Amino acid sequence: MSVEVLDGATIRSFVEDEQVFNNSVDDRFASLDTNHDGQLSYAEMARELQSLRVLETHFGVDEVKPSRDELLRLYGSLFSQFDHDGSGSVDLEEFREETRKMMLAVANGLGFLPVQMVLEEGSFLQRAVDRETKKIYP
Ligand SMILES: [Ca+2]
Q1: pTM for the whole thing?
Q2: What sequence ranges are listed for the domain EF-hand (predicted)?
């Protein structure tokens, strides 16, 4: 965990840097795909869905504290957002596409005002900051 200052432009330029962005997404995909079949099952995605949930809470999209059932339903609907063809698992293309969309949504939510955030090591937002401060090379 580290505290960083970031704004929408930091995230947007990270997403638009296709090589760096795809590398980051591919890394994440590989680390989530614990049985290495090239698909992410719901169970494999659970960790990622939790961190997306943290993002939503952070940006005040949803300030109500949901019950356990509601949370599970929320994860389920997030998962089906990723699973475009409804196959029950998420492939690399779907993962890239949806991650890209979500990052851009976060960028739009941030706008031009820099905010201070606590970032998880290896998270996409942390990588966006690292890229800008040149800690990551393609
Ligand atoms: Ca898998």
Answers
A1: 0.81
A2: 20-55, 70-105
